[in-house]
Design brief:
- With 71 residues, the protein is mainly α.
- The chain has 4 helices and no strands.
- It is globular, with a radius of gyration of 11 Å.
- 62% of the residues lie in helices and 0% in strands.
- It has helices at 6-19, 27-33, 39-49, 58-69.
Length: 71
């Protein structure tokens, strides 16, 4: 579950725009492709996947994982 406040969600969206959107333009398409039965499982999968997929900053990985997992 993403507990981000609206301002925090805007900050994560900015991370997405800067770091991900060049290759992954449609965030909803990416969200739909993340495996997991619930938000916690999707966030766990993303936390394991993102460090090997151009996201090296731990804080960005955590924020993006929660943000993408909440759908």
């Amino acid at each position: 579950v993403c507990l981000a406040l609206p301002a925090q969600a805007d900050e994560v969206a900015a991370i997405w725009a800067k770091s991900c959107a060049r290759c992954h333009r449609d965030v909803e398409k990416v969200r739909a492709g993340v495996p997991g039965a619930d938000a916690a499982a999707r966030a766990d999968w993303l936390r394991a996947f993102l460090p090997g997929h151009h996201a090296r900053d731990a804080a960005a990985v955590a924020a993006l994982s929660d943000w993408l997992a909440a759908r």
